[in-house]
Amino acid sequence: MKLGISKIEAESVTGLSFGAFLGSQLQGLRQGALIIAALMYALFGVMDYIRYPLEVYQYTVPLRVIFVILPLVFAINLSWGKAPKNIRVYIGLMLLVFLSAGVLHSVIFVMADYQDIEFSQMGLVLILMFGCLFTGLPVVAAGAVTAAILVIHFAASLTVNKTINGPVFDSTILLLVAVLCLLVNQTCQNILRSNFRLLRQLYNDSINDSLTGVFNRRYLMGQAERGVKQASRDGCAVALVMVDVDHFKVFNDQQGHLLGDALLQKFARMLGTYCRRPSDFLARFGGDEFTLFLYGVKRERVEEICAEIVASAIALGEPHPGTTSRLATLSVGAIYADVPISSKLDKLLSSADHALLSAKKNGCNGYVVETEIVGS
Fold first, then answer.
1. CA 28, CA 145: separation in Å to the nearest integer?
2. pTM attached to this predicted model
3. What is the pLDDT of residues 93-120, one digit of tens each?
4. Are 6 and 293 in contact (CB under 8 A)?
5. What backbone phi and psi angles, to 5 degrees, belong to 48?
6. Options 3.40.50.740, 3.30.70.270, 3.20.20.140, 3.40.50.300; which CATH number does 217-370 get?
7. What are the Cα distances from residue 256, in Å, to 58, 139, 211, 270?
C-alpha cells in the first residue's frame, strides 16, 4: 500500500516503464550498433560506386543516403548522451530504418541482376542481425518487420533466379539467422526484465514499512529533506505532523503484540487518507509514531487535519484498557513552517516532536500546532 507518490520517487526505478529501463540499459549497445551500422552502410554506398556502372549507382547511392544513412544519423543524434525521452518514437524510427534497409537491399539486388552484376547476400545478413539483435528492439515488432523483409526478398529472388529452389534455400538460411538473433534478443530482454522487477522490489522494500505498508523512516528523511528544499525554492509552506498512539506499551502488554500490530495497521490506514496530493506522504517514524509530510498547506488546514486525526481515532472505537475513555486514542504534534524555510529537516522534526510532547503533557488525546522552530 502506498500513500502518496512523490515526484522524486517517479524519477526512480519504480517510476520507469520496462521499455524506458531497457532503453537505459542498452544505451551503450545501441549507440555502438548505430555508429557501426552508419559506417557499414556508408561503405555499401562506396562499394556501389566502385562495382556498379553509372546506370546503377546513380540510383542506389542516393537511395541508401536518403532512406538509411540519414535516418541512422538522426537516430544517433537522438540517442547520443542519454536514453531518448520518447522511447516509442525512437523504436518507431529504428523499425523504419530496419525495414528501409531490408527492402532497399532487395531493390538493389534486382537492379544488379539486370546489369549482370553479382550481388552478395551478406549485406542482408548484417541488416537482420542489426534489426533483430543489436538494437534491442521489441521482439514482436522486430519479428514482424523481419517477416516483411524476408517476404520481399523471397519475391526478389524469384524474379532473379526464375526457379524456386534457390530462393527457398536462401530464405531458409536467412530465416534461421533472424530467428536465432530474435531468440538471443528475447533471452537478454527476459534477463533484464527479471533484473528490473528485482530492482523495483528491492527499492520498494527499502522505503516501505513491512508492518503497516506506509513509507518508512529512511524514506521520510530523504524525501522530506527534498520537500523542504523545494518549498524554499517555490515559496511554499510545509507541515510535519507527528502522531503517537497513547499508552501503546500498556496496550501491547495487556492485549498482546498481535493486536498491537493490528491497531497500528488500522491507524496507518486512517492516517493515509490525509495524503490527498502527490506531494503529501505518510511514514512510520518508529514504534507507534507516524509522521505526515504536507506540502504547500495552509496553517488553518493543518489545525483541521490535527483535530480530525484525534476525532477519527476515537471514531474507530478500538478498545484500550490503558486510557481514560477505554478507547485507543492519538496525540498529535505539528510544526507549521511558513516561507521562507531556512531551517533544516532535523530542526523541523525536533519542533514537531516538541509539539507532540506538549500534547502528551496536556493529557493525551489532543493536538498542538507550533510555528516556532526549535533552535532557530
1. 23
2. 0.65
3. 889 999 999 999 999 999 888 888 888 8
4. no
5. -60, -45
6. 3.30.70.270
7. 88, 55, 16, 22
